[in-house]
TrEMBL record:
This is Aspartate carbamoyltransferase. Heterododecamer (2C3:3R2) of six catalytic PyrB chains organized as two trimers (C3), and six regulatory PyrI chains organized as three dimers (R2). Keywords: Pyrimidine biosynthesis, Transferase. The keyword Transferase applies. It holds the Pfam family OTCace_N. Residues 2-144 form the Aspartate/ornithine carbamoyltransferase carbamoyl-P binding domain. Belongs to the aspartate/ornithine carbamoyltransferase superfamily. ATCase family. InterPro entries: Asp/Orn_carbamoyltranf_P-bd, Asp/Orn_carbamoylTrfase, Asp/Orn_carbamoylTrfase_sf, Asp_carbamoyltransf, Asp_carbamoyltransf_Asp/Orn-bd. Catalyzes the condensation of carbamoyl phosphate and aspartate to form carbamoyl aspartate and inorganic phosphate, the committed step in the de novo pyrimidine nucleotide biosynthesis pathway. It comes from Ornithinimicrobium tianjinense. It catalyses: carbamoyl phosphate + L-aspartate = N-carbamoyl-L-aspartate + phosphate + H(+). Pathway: Pyrimidine metabolism; UMP biosynthesis via de novo pathway; (S)-dihydroorotate from bicarbonate: step 2/3.
Length: 310
């Protein structure tokens, strides 16, 4: 494994191996001295062309806890803002001899393209509306831990599906781990062509959140991505919250054991109520905590795993 560009490139065994290694990486978080020597002497560049809080900081923390040297670059403050092309910018960084570029970019497919230009490992930290593989892996880690496994479990993914790269990576990852998935959204936020994909890959579609909630083991609420919306996808925020939000009333529809996930950042009062976000069964902060461990495991697999002595 050299790059992590898409969940589609990972076998079920590789996913399981990343999740299993993350379990031991997670212990580091509770130590006083949070440092393993595993990636000593390796250099990792975090290159984020889009805003991020948790993904960027957790990749940086993951690198630091594994003793790699980590450097953060953004579009602003680099020669990108002087008009340098993406190719020239990443080839410049690659020429410095770094071991890995972790990239977030508004264009779907940018990490794949970068992987063709540079010799080092490339990790996709979210590309446009395409994929966000490390997020799907940390979601799987969190749900697997809470539910005791994902095989045969029912996961509903709800909200702004059209603009969500988290959705696309999760669909692939959950299928490989044997979960049953139902997507719930208003018709305007269902991606075009999703019907054919659902038929081919065996997941379900619904417009009725109330009907789906009593049947789930986990419900994953996705953010309404206003920054990617050019028109009106729903009449008002209030109407969206009432029809597709995880409101206090809908919390009562969930089975007792069912858990709530959200990749963050949350729009409280829109797709998720404060009651749901802060409920005992909400795994939102567990996801953040798992994010560091899973990203440590990803870095380990790409830079120090078997056959990856670079
Ligand atoms: C997601 C992203 O950036 O794709 N957030 C994240 O990485 N935790 C989802 C989102 O922005 O809504």
């Amino acid at each position: 494994m050299k790059h992590l560009l898409s969940i589609a490139d990972l076998s079920t065994e590789e996913i399981t191996s990343i999740l299993d290694t993350a379990v031991s990486m997670h212990e580091v978080q509770h130590r006083e001295v949070k440092k393993l020597p595993t990636l000593r002497g390796r250099t990792i560049i975090n290159f984020f062309f889009e805003d991020s809080t948790r993904t960027r900081s957790s990749f940086e923390i993951a690198g630091k806890w594994l003793s790699a040297d980590t450097i953060n670059l953004t579009g602003k403050g680099t020669s990108v803002s002087k008009g340098e092309s993406l190719r020239d910018t990443v080839m410049t960084v690659g020429a410095m001899g770094v071991d890995m570029i972790i990239v977030r970019h508004p264009a779907s497919g940018a990490p794949q393209q970068i992987a063709e230009w540079v010799d080092c490992s490339v990790v996709n930290a979210g590309d446009g509306t395409h994929e966000h593989p490390s997020q799907a892996l940390l979601d799987a880690y969190t749900m697997r831990h809470a539910l005791g496994g994902l095989e045969g479990r029912h996961v509903a993914i709800v909200g702004d599906l059209t603009h969500s790269r988290v959705l696309r990576s999760n669909l692939l990852c959950l299928a490989k781990l044997g979960a049953q998935v139902t997507l719930v959204a208003p018709p305007t936020l269902m991606p075009s062509g999703i019907g054919a994909w659902a038929a081919a890959d065996g997941f379900n579609l619904s417009y009725d959140l109330d009907a789906v909630l009593p049947t789930v083991d986990a419900v994953m609420m996705l953010r309404v991505q206003r920054e990617r919306m050019s028109g009106g996808y729903f009449p008002t925020a209030k109407e969206y919250a009432v029809t597709y939000g995880l409101t206090p009333r809908r919390l009562g529809l969930l089975p007792e054991h069912a858990v709530i996930c959200h990749p963050g950042p949350m729009n409280r009062g829109l797709e998720i109520s404060a009651d749901a976000a802060d409920a005992a069964r909400s795994l939102v902060l567990d996801q953040v905590s798992a994010g560091v461990a899973v990203r440590m495991s990803i870095l380990y697999h790409l830079l120090a795993g078997e056959g990856n002595d670079q």
